[in-house]
């Protein structure tokens, strides 16, 4: 019993660190994109009106979500997925954007899966401890 719990714990740690590493890479990349595009615009005007919604969803929303996910895994993961879906809806559900949204959403999915599995693992361990 302890061996399976240990393996499950190791698997959860791998899942968590996979989410943290990929999320951290996206945070760094999005920080770079935000700084480059908003500090030195490349001859483009600033977003106007409803364009701010798209910018708020991606890159800002995803950036904030993955930063939050380092501490609050479920909240950050769900927020990242909601922001990506909002951004995809903003651009009109085009299929050419879908691969980008899926790739950027991988850490969010990993955070949500980690949270669900760790809760199930904790519940299983708790019931095993209570058994006679």
What is the β-strand count?
0
Q: Mind telling me the C-alpha Rg? A: 18 Å
State mean pLDDT (0 to 100 scale). Answer: 87
Domains, number: 1
The span between the termini is 14 Å
What best-fitting shape do the alpha-carbon axes yield? elongated
Number of discrete helical segments: 4
Question: What percent of the residues sit in helical stretches (DSSP H or I)?
Answer: over 70%
Taken in chain order, the helices and strands follow as HHHH
What does this structure look like?
The protein is mainly alpha-helical. The chain has one domain. Helix 2 packs antiparallel against helix 3. The radius of gyration is 18 Å and the shape is elongated. The two termini are 14 Å apart. The model has no long low-confidence stretch (mean pLDDT 87).
